[in-house]
Every structure is written in C-alpha cells, then in structure tokens.
Amino acid sequence: MAATEDHPSVLRTMRGISRPVWLLLAGMFVNRLGNFLQIYLVLYLTGKGFSAYGAGIALGAYGAGSVVGVLAGGSISDRFGYRWTIVTSMAAAGALTTLMVVLPSLPLVIVVAAVVGALGQAYRPASSALLVELTPARQHVMVFAVYRLAFNLGTTAGPLLGALLITYSYDLMFYVDAVTALAFAAFALSLPHTVPSTDAPAAADGGRRSYLGVLADRRFTLFMLALFLNAVVYIQHIAVLPLQVTADGHRPEVYAALLSLNAVMVIALELPLTKFVQRMPAKLAVALGIGLVGVGMNMYVAGPAIAMFVVATLVWTLGEIVGTPTVSAYPAQVAPPGMRGRYIAAAALPMQIGYAAGPVIGVAMWTVWPDGVWWGCAAITVVAVLATLAGMTRTTGDPDGGESAPDREQAAASTH
C-alpha cells in the first residue's frame, strides 16, 4: 500500500488532481490550441505584401522576445506571485495580438511581434511553479506528464485549427489566438494567489535572490549544461534528419512519417510509462532519457533502410518520454524558497540556446562529414549524461528537505 501511495498510478494521480491544477492544465491547453502567431506569421506577412526577408526578421523577433519573456516571467513570478503573472501575461498578449491585423508597417510588426513573444511566454515559469506548489511531491513527475500531454495535444491540434481559420480569414486566426490567451487569463483568475516563500536568510542575501544566485548553484549549472547539450542533439531530428533521409534516397514523406511516429508515441505512451519512471531517482531518469536520445540519434548513421530510421526514431522518442517529465519537474523541486520561477526560467534558457545553435552546428558538420553529425551526437550525449549524474545530486523536494504545500497540509491534518 505504501508503495502505491508513494508512486501513484495514472488513474490515481488523475483522480487526485485538484480543481486549481485542472484549471491550469485546461487554460494551458486552450492557449496552445490557439497559438497561431508563430506558426503562420511568415505566411501572413508575405501574403500582406511584405518581403520574405522582413517576415523572417519578424519571426526572429518573436523568438527573441520569447526567450526574454521566460526570463522576465521567472523574476516577476517570484516577486509578485504566480497567479498574477499568468493573468497579466496572457491578458496583455491577447490584447496585443489583435493589433497585428492593423499594423501598417514592418518595423511596427517587428516590435509588436517581439513584445507578444515576450508576453506570451512569461507565464511558463509561473505555471510550472504553481503545478509544484499545488501538487504533492510524490505526484510531481506524473502531473508534469499530464501537463505535457495537454501541451502536446494543443500544439498538435493548433496548426490544423489555424489552417481551417485561414480559409476564412487571416484576421479571424489572430482574433481566435487572442481569445484563447484571454481565456487562459480568465481561468487563471480562479487560481489561488500563491505568494512565493521568502524566508529570512534568502531575503537577507539579495544577490542570491536573482539569476546570479542560480548561476552560483554549481550543481544546478551542471544540470543546465546537460540540458543545453541534450537540446543540441535533440534538435538534429529537425535540422539534419531530413537531409539524411533524402540523401539516403527516400522521399520527404518518409521524414514526415518519422515525425508523426514521434508525436503519436509521445501522446500515447508518456503517461503510462511515467507510472514506472516516477519510481526512479530523478538523476537516473534524466540520465537514461538523455542517453536514449543520443543513442537513437547515433543510430541514424546505420541507414539507409527505412526500418533502421524507424528503430532509431523509436529509441530517441523513448528517451524523450522517459526523461522529459522529470526534467520539467526538477527545477521547481530543488529551487530555494522564493526562487522557483527563476530556477524554472534558468532551466529553459539553455534548452532554447541549444535549439538555436544545434541546427547551425549540425548542418555545418553535415556539409563536411555527414556521418560525423550522428557520431558527434553520441559524443555530446556522453558529456551530457556525466553532467546530469554530477549535477543532480540532491533529492527532489525543497532543497532544505521541506515538503510542498499540499504535503504540509496533509501532514498537519493527520496530526489533529
């Protein structure tokens, strides 16, 4: 019985999810379902008569704004609370998105796209911190798997909905995007106003209550290094894999089928497998996940048979399934009091940098030595696994050994 309570099943976790957490998950799903701006911005702007080059700059500005927004959202959520960060982020992003349909010049489009990118991502540290705050520690990994399911379903269905709306009007697409952001803000209004803990020692050391304090945590910086290296490897399935598939004589449809296989596996299998993954120590789950991603990518060197491409994709997808829920939960679990938002944002930054640098590194290597990309993935993965094992030395839960708010409440109830 104790083992069941320590490692709850999927159904037990789903039944135990509180109403605020369901509201958060539903709001995030609706927001992702209507996240059309980044996907269709280039098509929209070129259709309006702007140059492809200008449209690319606008998309780049949106991406840069997203990175800044995550970092700013981490600080804001730690200072002002998680609920109001989500409400403000989503309400402002929704309002500004409606302006995109009336902007007359490219410079204005670029500025507004950057601001919308920042506002539209500022909620993410707060939402992850709230999931940890409102969920018992033993359920963190499973709840983040549910979170990823909602995120992936919204991300998968969103482009299809956007394509349908475009058949009527690009303007309608932007208005629906704005409505979904405002809906998330409305959902967030019903969330509890959780004020991040600010114990006296942390508050007294102002330098520690900033991103400098995160960087001073050497073990966590090793974890961040592992995330960066893993992102460089993982993104090769978008950067170099299509080149490998076509170079081996296959049609582009084969590459599309491999991506679909990945998406279907993640959506169908992540929750059931997380039931077992949550029993593993955090560092072993992450190290195994990162290792499988590297092994899968390395297997592409064995082509050109389609069966080999399928097996390799199955392996790295399994790594994604095994490692990502724990990676998502870990920063908030080990953050000092009052620093959860910053730790979550700091963990997101190296991944974004890896996703940006990975294609440049991979394609450059491909032009010189195609097989070297996949051997390089293996070598990088070894370093990433070692950084994971060295960096994730703390037990999960609050770094001082404390419990999450729901655990404290349950413990208090049991003593009366």
What is the compact description of this entry?
The protein is mainly α.
Would you write up a description of this structure?
- The protein has 416 residues and is mainly α.
- It has two domains: 2-188, MFS general substrate transporter like domains (Growth Hormone, Chain: A), CATH 1.20.1250.20; 200-395, MFS general substrate transporter like domains (Growth Hormone, Chain: A, Up-down Bundle).
- It is built from 21 helices and no strands.
- It has helices at 2-6, 10-16, 19-33, 37-47, 52-80, 82-97, 106-121, 123-133, 140-166, 170-188, 200-204, 211-215, 218-234, 236-239, 241-247, 252-277, 282-299, 306-334, 340-368, 370-391, 405-414.
- Helix 6 packs antiparallel against helix 7 (106-121) and helix 9 (140-166) packs across helix 18.
- The longest helix is centred in the first third of the chain and has 29 residues, at 52-80.
- The model is unreliable at 200-204 and 397-416 (pLDDT under 50).
- It is a multi-pass membrane protein.
- Keywords: Cell membrane, Membrane, Transmembrane, Transmembrane helix, Transport.
- The chain crosses the membrane at residues 21-44, 50-72, 144-166, 220-242, 254-272, 284-301, 307-331, 343-366, 372-392.
- Residues 20-396 form the Major facilitator superfamily (MFS) profile domain.
- Residues 395-416 are annotated as: Disordered.
